Amino acid sequence: MKRIKGFQIILAFLLTSSIILTSCSQSSPNIEKEEVKEKTTVEEQKSPEEQVKVEKEEQEKQADSVQQKEDLAKRWGLELISVGRVVDGDTIVTSDGRKIRLVGVNTPESTTRHEEFGKEASNYTTSKLTGKQVWIQKDVSETDRYNRLLRIVWLGIPTNDMDEAEIRSKMFNADLVLKGFAEPSTYPPDVKYSDYFVKFAREARAANAGLWAYGAQGTTKGDLDNSSKTNNGSTAPPSGTTPEDSTSGGTSSGKTESFKNCTEMRKVYPNGVPSTHPAYEARHDRDKDNWACER
Predict the structure, then answer these.
(1) How confident is the model over 141-195, as pLDDT tens digits?
(2) 20 to 30 A from 91, CA-CA: which of 52, 175, 176, 270?
(3) Using CA of residue 227, residue 232, residue 234, residue 235, what is the dihedral sign?
């Protein structure tokens, strides 16, 4: 009898514990619902004046953010534009018809002539910029000899336009170099970001990224390409940049010069020559732009 009685006591204890646990689990959701209901009731109890005040504070925060962006854009000389189409990796056209050449970088050719990785560079720029709103920034030069605007392209407004982290994350010119779609191509006086571009290109080359997978000289002309250096050690202007110094070494006596082909001419005039130069010959001006043997 004692054993039976003890068993009954244990069974009763287990049943009581089960009932208590079930009751707690059922009451917990109800408690949470009550808390949510109380919170909602408190919010609904806000007076119209308080709700107006909250809305006004939100609007002021948004206005401050917009004003801050406008102030930064003005400080760094940024202009907001819409990209209508992409010509190639380093050239775009705005929605209002202005053609822009990205300054400080040079992507492989993919239009009138083709270089390795040119199509890939063009496709990348197309995917990133077509139809987008971006900010453009002038360095020093306004346009090149093709009357294209020379500009830096920012995907977002930097708080400091010389901060390396922001250049890496927000500047499209830098992005092209970092991912190996472009080589740095410096031509004075537009040298504001040239040191960064060279640094980024060395990183990309060390990683064999993009055009650097084809060799240490890349696939087009740039600052890290030995063939881009002129006789005096300065960097030759990239395709499409202002060529003021390209006539250095020419004569002003009226004497003409003749070269068998562009290869021979570039040994003397690495950047080609304009139609006013003594060495200019129409047969070397294949694209009929009054500039012979340009790169």
Answers:
(1) 999 989 999 999 999 999 999 999 999 999 999 999 999 999 999 999 999 999 9
(2) 270
(3) negative
Tokens 């009932």 belong to residue: 19
Q: Which residues pair with 110 in a beta bridge?
A: 114
Distance CA 247, CA 282 (A): 17
Instruction: Work out whether the CA dihedral 113, 117, 123, 126 comes out positive or negative.
Output: negative
Q: Count of CB atoms within 10 A of residue 89's CB?
A: 29
**Tokens representing residue 282 in the block:** 């129409």
What tokens appear for 11 in the block? 């069974």
Pick the closest to residue 114 from 89, 94, 92 (CA basis).
Answer: 89
Q: Quote the CA–CA distance of 20 and 14 in Å, as a whole number.
A: 10
How confident is the model over 194-249, as pLDDT tens digits?
Answer: 999 999 999 999 999 999 999 999 999 999 987 544 433 334 444 444 333 333 33
User: How many residues does this entry show for the chain?
Assistant: 295
3-state secondary structure of 206: helix
Contact 271, 221 (CB under 8 A): no
Burial class from Cβ neighbours inside 10 Å (0-12, 13-18, 19+) for residue 115 reads middle
What's the confidence (pLDDT) of residue 244?
A: 34
CA distance 75 to 161: 10
- 292 CB-near residues (< 8 Å, 6+ apart): 262, 265, 272, 273, 274, 275, 277, 279, 280, 281, 282, 284, 285
* Cis amide linkage into residue 189, ω under 30° from 0: yes
Within 8 A by CB and 6+ apart from 99, the residues are 87, 91, 92, 93, 146, 147, 148, 149
